[in-house]
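Annotators were shown the component list below and the corresponding predicted structure, then asked to write short factual statements about the assembly.
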Amino acid sequence: MRRSRQKDAILRVLCETDSHPTAEWIYEQVKKEIPTLSLGTVYRNLRLMTENGSVRELRFTGEQGRYDGNIQHHDHFRCEKCGRIFDLGELLDELIKEKVARKMGACITGHRLEITGTCRECRNSKY
Amino acid sequence: MRRSRQKDAILRVLCETDSHPTAEWIYEQVKKEIPTLSLGTVYRNLRLMTENGSVRELRFTGEQGRYDGNIQHHDHFRCEKCGRIFDLGELLDELIKEKVARKMGACITGHRLEITGTCRECRNSKY
DNA sequence: TTATTTGCAAATCATTTGCCCGAAG
DNA sequence: CTTCGGGCAAATGATTTGCAAATAA
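Structure shown to annotators:
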């Protein structure tokens, strides 16, 4: 994969935020710096980076795809009111995975865990 | 929500399988019985039933949406080779959720957990 | 009767692709 | 040079929607 100004900028923007943005949002940000940028390029590069492991793709319930610059495994909390996604550490312990592996005769390579609820702010907001 | 022949058939087909089918697959099955059925009706009704809680929508992998007639909470194992989705019991224990709730000041309403790997059959297949 | 649901086709929306041109190595 | 990446616009594929006709209550 050849390097480019747009790839650099996309990855930088993604890594500088902790907001798990959509491709669209990244596009808007990078456009400020490279006005000729096209949305297709953002999708293309996010996909390439996901494939080579520089980026993680999150795909929650029915919504648009979101991206995470933090590739270390971690689980997520999604607030059902405001839609924000927060990082949690790795919650699922190895014992559970081993238990599943044994019971199913399967070989486990990963997991995705999303906890949902209402975040502190939304609980405290008036409406 | 008014009852209808197509709603009954859709729900029956979904509950009779354990294959976590797509809307398309359900459509093919029900079409055998109601040849005039349209795909739009399947989508429309699956959505209504998801909203009123008769059906569960699975949407983890970026793939097409899948539906589950078993509405009791349970987690899933997805084989990355054959793509099949197997049911697991409820794996995530309450303690973990409480810990998250306390740390985040959030109120937890649910979770989705998908474990991925290679199932027994695929491990044993030659290719 | 009359309110809902259906079937159909057109519309949406996120994402991907084809193509030709400009840039990277 | 020569190959790969970018911009653009058109294509795709899943899902949703608008509407007139059909059906459940």
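Statements collected:
1. The radius of gyration of chain B is 17 Å.
2. Residues 1-2, 4, 6-7, 36-41, 44-45 of chain B lie near DNA strand C (CB under 10 Å from a C1').
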